[in-house]
């Protein structure tokens, strides 16, 4: 009997009803905040990057005081929009980058993922890429952060392939940053000018990137068939974590 008491005393105490209520309330706040971010995306489509909190509240069907229970200020909303923008981009980009395709179709698919996202959410990209947001946090540059993460992942991917072909992988990092910078700058130009279709700009960039890869590989005596999958499908993972605030209120 004594042993039974000792064993029972070592068992973890069950969660109290108060813990369960707090957990449900936390999940409710997270879900509610996510709803407001989606409303902010809709407001962005209508009002552009200069949207106000009143525009977001109207799109969400609530008053500004309710909105401020979930966001400390406009800067907090900016960070939340940045988080959502990153999610939208990576949800499309990761499957494309890691697709088991031939080199050129794989490049094309990754580029199409990026241009599809900025085409669907042009004002979100403009908001995050430019310094026009009046209350933007001083240390918040979502596009620069994402660029760094993507370039780092692309460096690893290119380096793996270059080593596979016995090439100097030291070029992987400048190549990666050059490619990411070119794609980003072209994306901003394309959103402003729209002088060609998304398919056209994706195809032009695909050919430019492949020409560089093909040219360098041939210099090292390596010939890669652009339309045949490589023997090894190297993959990458994007590690991008931002702290999510839940806010208070209902």
Overview of the molecule:
There is one protein chain. The radius of gyration is 24 Å and the shape is elongated. The protein is built from 10 helices and no strands. It has helices at 2-10, 17-47, 53-60, 64-68, 74-97, 103-120, 122-129, 142-164, 172-193, 198-219. 68% of the residues lie in helices and 0% in strands. The protein starts with a helix and ends in a 31-residue tail after the last helix. Mean pLDDT is 85; it is low at 4-9 and 240-250. It is mainly alpha-helical.
Q: How are the secondary structure elements laid out?
A:
Blueprint: H1 2-10, H2 17-47, H3 53-60, H4 64-68, H5 74-97, H6 103-120, H7 122-129, H8 142-164, H9 172-193, H10 198-219
DNA-binding region: 52-71
Region (Disordered): 1-24
Protein name: TetR/AcrR family transcriptional regulator
Describe what is shown at a glance.
The protein is mostly helical and 250 residues long. The chain is built from ten helices and no strands.
Instruction: Please tell me what the overall shape is.
Output: elongated
Distance between the termini: 49 Å
Per DSSP, the total helix count is: 10
Count every beta strand, where a strand is a DSSP E run of 2 or more residues: 0
Helical residue percent band = 55-70%
What is the rounded Rg?
24 Å
Q: How large a portion of the residues is in β-strands, by DSSP E?
A: under 5%
Largest β sheet strand count, sense and barrel closure: none
Instruction: Report the mean per-residue pLDDT as an integer.
Output: 85
SSE succession: HHHHHHHHHH
